[in-house]
Amino acid sequence: MSKETAVSFAERGCTTVRLLNDIPFGHKFALSDLSEGETIVKYGVPIGQLIRPVKAGEHIHLHNLVTLQRRGDVQ
Predict the structure, then answer these.
(1) Which structural domains are found in the chain, ordered by start?
(2) Which residues neighbour 32 within 8 Å (Cβ) at sequence distance 6 or greater?
(3) Model pLDDT for residues 8-23, shown as the tens digit of each residue
(4) pTM of the full predicted structure?
(5) Distance between CA atoms of 51 and 54, rounded to whole angstroms?
(6) How large a percentage of the chain has pLDDT more than 70?
(7) Angle at 36 between CA 48 and CA 51, to 5 degrees
(8) Is-contact 32 16, C-beta < 8 A?
(9) How many CB atoms lie under 10 A from the CB of residue 23?
(10) What's the superkingdom here (predicted)?
(11) pLDDT for the residue 36
(12) Under 8 Å CB-to-CB from 47, ≥6 apart: which residues?
């Protein structure tokens, strides 16, 4: 989705989030302002912790998230 897109979520009480960055397909963005250290959940599974604060609509990826999941190729 491109920057300046507004995304609405009816199941979250009609929450609307305006994206602050271009979000590649399959990537995450914050639905609300989040603090450093907060756990990020994707599809109900904790996947990482923020290493800096993130604003609503901001891209969440490896530049602001440390993963909690182990890669299959790392022992």
Answers:
(1) 6-67 (2.30.130.110)
(2) 56
(3) 777 666 678 889 999 9
(4) 0.75
(5) 9
(6) 80
(7) 55
(8) no
(9) 20
(10) Bacteria
(11) 97
(12) 40, 41, 65, 67, 68, 69
